[in-house]
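Why does residue order matter? Because the sequence determines the fold. Keep that principle in mind as you read this record.
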Amino acid sequence: MASDPIEMIAVMKDEVSFVRLTEIEPTEIARHMSDPRLAEHMPLLVGKWDTEVVENFVARKERSWIRDGLGHWAILVNGEYVGWGGFQKEGEEWDFGLVLRPEAFGLGRRITKKAIEFAHADERISFVTFLLPPSRKKLGALDRLGAKYVGAIDYDGERFLKYRLETE
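Structure:
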C-alpha cells in the first residue's frame, strides 16, 4: 500500500473496485479501524478493534446484504485495500458511508463518484443520504455532487449533519 501522498496520486489513476468485506483479512480491517486519526471524524467509533470485533462487524454487514441485497463493500485501488463503504438501508433510506485509511483520504471523491454512479443505475435507490459529523468542515464535495442539506439529526446518541442526493 502506498503511504506517500505522491504515490497515492499515482494510484488514483488506476482501478477502483468494490468487493465484499469477507474478501479482506480481518487483521487489515482491524489495523485500519485502529488508526487514531479515524476517531477525529467518527464519533461512533469506540473501543479497540481486534479480529473478533472485525469478524462481528463483517457478519453484521453481511446480514445487510442478505436482508437488503446491498451493503458495504471493501474498497480496493489496484487490488490494495484502502477502506470500506457503500450503501446501508436506514429505514426507507439508503445511506452512503465511506471510511478510508488516512493515507487514502484523497481518494474519497473518486470512490464516492463511482459509488454514486452505481446508485444512479440501481432502481432501488431513488436518493442517497449522507450523515456527517459536525467536525467535518469541508463539505464542498457534497455541493458539487448536488446533495442538499436536510438538517442536523441525532443518530445513536450523536449529532450528525444530514444531506440528501436525488439519484433518479
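The chain has one domain: 5-123.
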